[in-house]
Structure formats: C-alpha cells, structure tokens
Amino acid sequence: MASGLTAQEMADLAALADGTLPESRRAEVEARVAASPELQELLDRQRQAVHVLQAASDEEVPASLRHAVEALLPRAKRGRTRRFVPRLALATAAAVAGAVIAAVLVTSGPGAPTVADAAALARQVPNAPAPAKVGTRLALGVQGVAFPNFEQPYGWRAVGVRQGRVDGRPATAVFYAKGDRRLAYVIVGGAGLSRPGEAREATVDGVEYQTLRLNGKLAVTWRRGGHTCVLLGQATQQELLRLASWPLSAPR
To answer: By C-alpha distance, which of 30, 36, 234 is closest to 22?
Structure first.
C-alpha cells in the first residue's frame, strides 16, 4: 500500500499518527485519509506502531538486546558501553523491534484474511436474488464499488447474490450463469487483501491482475477502488481477464 505514496505523504501520516502534524495541515491530511480506505489502514498501523513505541519505552532492556546493540559498536567502545549504555537508545531499539513485530502480525500474521478466504464465499449458494441491471452495472456494490452487468456484452447473466464477511469485513458475491457454466464475482470491503505470492501477473489497461487456481478453479484477483475483487469459475484465463477488465476495455 505504501509503495504508491510519496515520502511527504508517508511523513504526513506518521505525523498525524503521533500528534506532531501542524494544525494548519491537519484538516487537509485528515480529508485525504478519510477519502481512502488504504490510507485509513496505513494510519491505523502507524498508530499501532506509535502505541508500541510508547509502551516499550518504560520496559527493562533484555540482556540479549543489550548484547546485540553492543555487538554493533566498535570494539574499542564496548567496555564503556557495558558500564553505561544510554537507556533511551536501548529502549528505542526495543520499541523499534516491537513495532516491526507488530507490523508483521498486522499485515501477514496467521489471522490476516487472504484471497482464498474471499473466494470461499463463492463456494456457497446464493441467499438473495440477482440485483437489478442499471446500464453497464448492477444495482449492488460494496463500499462504492459496483458489480458489472455482463449480460449484454458477454452473455453472462446475474442469477443470485451471497452476502457475508471475510475476517470481519463485509463481502458480497454475485453469481453469473451462461448456459451450464457458472462464475462468481466477489468484492471484499476495507483495504485490499495481500496479493497472492504464487500467481501469474497480467496488466490490462494499466491495471494489474493476478491469475491463480483456488480450490481447483481458475481465478483472477485485482483491486478496484482500493478493494480486493476475485472472479472465478468455469472460464478460461483469457475470458476471466476480459470480464475482470470490463468496462475498462471495450467488449470484443
């Protein structure tokens, strides 16, 4: 998420999180964060790191960490360091270590939702009828991201809906049919899920897509409006990419 931000934007987030952002810029930065789920998640993580730093500053420094810090110093200075190592430096090192661990747990720990978790919603049966068609879209979406109407350009007709949650996030699957074939299109609310590591990448009209197999079915995943989308079912990779990128690319 941070890869698309400038150094100034990252500095603004850090200052907003720790309360050092000047009042004259606070409204501007807060408005930018409020308009972006990804920035909201980054701000939450930054605040968690700040909390870890504050909590760790009063902790006793473990001997193992003291030895590790001493090992980084020139040999000539190690004797003096053993007698007096500035507590603040060691506490900061401990806090940084804690913040790194916290970030790892938040972003990639065992409980972090995955694309496979999102695809699990597609394996369930619909529990609501198909939404109405409104031009190129359906009258249904997740946090401002609408589902497409594939019927006119491609012959895939929406036949049902399943709403649920993925690790506490709102998620919706729309099911499509074409003859005896079936597809499911899932949108997960909140910031985008971690991208799958073992997947083939493709770029269509400047948007990155990853194709992979989930439970034996071919799937493609990408992000729209900062949210993770997953499209999977009985279709070829080329067809899935064509559907996923529509209406960004012209029907063909």
So the answer is: 30
**Cis ω on the peptide bond leading into residue 170 (within 30° of 0)?**
no
Q: Are 125 and 95 in contact (CB under 8 A)?
A: no
Beta bridge partners of 133: 138
Which domains are assigned to the chain? 2-108 (no CATH), 115-245 (3.30.200.100)
Token pair belonging to 145: 């991201």
210 φ/ψ angles, rounded to the nearest 5 degrees: -120, 130
pTM of the model: 0.56
Determine contact, residues 212/219, Cβ cutoff 8 Å. Answer: yes
For residue 194, CA distances in Å to 62, 210, 221 come to 33, 12, 11
The 3-state DSSP class for residue 2 equals helix
Sign of CA dihedral 204, 206, 212, 218: negative
Distance of alpha carbon 129 from alpha carbon 23, whole angstroms: 49
Does an H or E element contain 207, and which?
Answer: strand 207-214
Q: Which amino acid is at 153?
A: P
Cβ–Cβ under 8 Å, residues 181 and 240: no
DSSP for residue 125: P
Rounded Cα gap, residues 110 and 226, in angstroms: 22
**pLDDT tens digit sequence for 149-199:** 999 889 999 999 999 988 888 999 999 999 999 999 999 998 888 877 778
| Burial grade of 170 (CB within 10 A; 0-12, 13-18, 19 or more) | middle
